[in-house]
Amino acid sequence: MHKRMDWRTVNFDWNRARAFLVTAEEGSLSAAARALKLAQPTLGRQVAALEAELGVVLFERFGRGLQLTPAGHELMAHVREMGDAASRLSLAAFGQSDAMEGVVRISASDAYAGLLLPPILKRLAEAEPRITIEVLA
Q1: pTM of the full predicted structure?
Q2: What is the phi/psi pair of residue 68, to 5°?
Q3: 136 phi and psi, to 5 degrees?
Q4: CA–CA separation, 36 vs 99, rounded Å?
Q5: Would you report the helix, strand and coil content of the chain in percent, each value rounded to 5?
Q6: Which of 21, 27, 36, 128 has its CA 20 to 30 A from that of 70?
Q7: How far apart are CA 137 and CA 121, in angstroms?
Q8: Interior CA angle at 73 toward 72 and 75, to 5°?
Q9: Over the stretch 35-71, which tens digit does the pLDDT of each residue have?
């Protein structure tokens, strides 16, 4: 039986959380270590430290593979949200956003400009309204 996490006592370390997230996504410590460009023992220590800090087992270990425990699944949802929030914060801090904007100039023959491009450009304009499209035929 796995116990639930007590979030009030957590002094969270993002590097450990990222190590956990990538390990869960990759399914093994060796694959996660390659993805993060870390030594496998270093990554293993980060995951073990997170487990010790939270007081729960996050992975069931099967040979060389890993499977999330119920506590691991619970943490996974929170860590993914944190990663998304960190990405948005980083974009905002540097004055960037996910939205595209600017001028796109497309050079096309008359046939392409008249027949093929209109439905494509319509979808693009709907998806990215801050883009100005100029077609040069």
Answers
A1: 0.60
A2: -65, 140
A3: -105, 110
A4: 27
A5: 60, 15, 25
A6: 36
A7: 14
A8: 65
A9: 999 999 999 999 999 999 888 999 998 887 899 999 9
